[in-house]
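Q: How would the structure tokens look for this protein?
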Amino acid sequence: MSGWSTTRSNFLTRTVVPLLLVVITPPAAMLMWHTMANLDGSVTLLGQEIWQKGFLQEISDVWLSRFFGSAMAWRMIGVFAIAQALMMWLLPGKKYHGTITPKGNQPEYKDNGLLSYIITFIVFLFCSVYLKLFSPGIIYYNMGDLLGALNFGALAFCLFLYFKGRFFPSSSDHSATGNFIFDYYWGTELFPQIAGIHVKQFTNCRFGMTGWALAVVSFAFAQKEIYGTADLGIIVSAVLIFIYLFKFFIWESGYMKSMDIQVDRAGFMICWGCLVWVPAVYTSPVMYMVKHPADMGYAMAALIFVMGFVSIWLNYWADHQRQSVRSTNGDTTIWGAMPVLIHAPYTTEDGSTKTNILLASGFWGVSRHFHYLPEILAAFFWSCAAGMGAFLPYFYVIFLIVLLTHRAFRDDTKCRNKYGESWVQYCQLVPYKIIPWVL
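A: Here is the predicted structure in token form.
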């Protein structure tokens, strides 16, 4: 019976769930845009449309009608993608290495993400606001076609990555299970490169994160163009997201050592997610605000901004503590005292023994993933600038809570398997995953 239960569990987790996600999320991304842009962010109105037309007809009207995007959308995507790739190549930056993989590989990156981020906005604002080559609200006006093109392009790109990982891998960190559905969803290669560019650094950071910030700034300009002025709510939300992602690029070298990069392969889950789900869902609170000015007063706008900024700062501070300990090999102070450290040995697949530092001081002594709390709070504050007129602007916050909670449990399992008794010792020092005395 136990063997049958294991087989059934594997079939569920490696076939059924991935297939459902691959089938459901692409149209869901389009429905998110349609609801925000055309239905006042109302889930009720969406439900009524689906009831009247039928689900397949609704999908056809919303998605299939722009399945391949538009010529304008492809030009915008092409210019943006080429610009980001060129900046990855050409901009100066210090070389740094990622975490050593189970097979002993250690990818090398160039730390020029922050410079790329700043230049992107300078060029966008100079060309749109100063030179008036195009409207600064251009992303909002073309969002449906952009998502259609990105959906099609990302699905095809993930198929390319599947075959690349099987037949033309960039390193020994590749494999296939023989289950096409799972391999397409999860990916077949850990660190694929194309023309010297790390695919996950491009999709996750330079395209996904930069595109997220660029989109919400464009949305704020679109509201100004539609109504003659930009509401304080949308300004506060767009500025907070811009600052949050500015912080992200300061810390990009740390992100390149996170679970997304160390564990998750370059497949549908990561690459399609960053190319489509991020612009469709992560931007949705500000997308809603374009046609729903909150008429927010200065006091409330200031309160939301301060609370959001403090949340972003706490998230950065927590990440900085860990980075500081790693970069100095523990020869630093945390909150004025020497850090509590565990030197955790682990063995790679080639039999080599390595050691990592586990930090049990500062925020990392409060809980093992304390930095998730201010990240969720920051998302809540830039979402609540939309007011309480609809539920959907808060979908991203709910999604983030589920994502980060699931990630905390996944990380715990990964580290327990990797570090063994050292992780058990660490968990005794820091017993809570995210919220002290709760979780």
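The CA atoms of residues 57 and 113 lie 42 Å apart.

Residues 304-439 form one domain.

Upvote if useful.
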